[in-house]
Amino acid sequence: MRAINPNGLLMTCSCSGAMTQSGQFLSVLQEASKQAVRKLTQLRYAGPSPDHTLDVSYPEGAYLTNVLLKDPALRRGFRETCAGRLKERRCLARGVGKC
Predict the structure, then answer these.
(1) C-alpha angle 90/91/94, rounded to 5°?
(2) Source organism's superkingdom (predicted)?
(3) Sequence-ordered alpha helix ranges (H) in 1-99
(4) 8, 27, 33, 93 - which has most CB atoms within 10 Å?
(5) In order of start, what are the domains of the chain with their CATH numbers?
(6) Distance of alpha carbon 12 from alpha carbon 88, whole angstroms
(7) Is the dihedral of CA 20, 31, 2, 96 positive or negative?
């Protein structure tokens, strides 16, 4: 998620019924965005295409999930955040734990 450009998009998918039906898929995405210090907007949450039919007597068949996320446009403090990340990467490359 750190690699998403400002105003960029991220499409991610899951084919795990356990993740989709329990709500864990969105929880994982929320946690990842927190760890990446990104505030993402959900543009789309979708299931399978119409040609992948679902038998109503077998709800476990609803396992395909597609989520489209967007990083909002440049926000205040973005340059400072980028500068901080660049400094952190340089310190790590030199083997210095904290700058």
Answers:
(1) 90
(2) Eukaryota
(3) 17-22, 24-35, 78-94
(4) 33
(5) 9-94 (3.40.50.150)
(6) 28
(7) negative
What's the gap between Cα 35 and its chain centre? 10
Mean residue pLDDT of the chain comes to: 82
- Residue tagged 């210095």 (tokens): 96
* Predicted local confidence at residue 73, as pLDDT: 65
φ and ψ of 90, to 5 deg: -65, -40
- 2-27 pLDDT, tens per residue? 888 888 999 999 999 888 888 899 99
- Residue where the block lists tokens 């119409």: 50
Name which of 66, 99, 80, 67 is nearest 37 in CA terms.
80
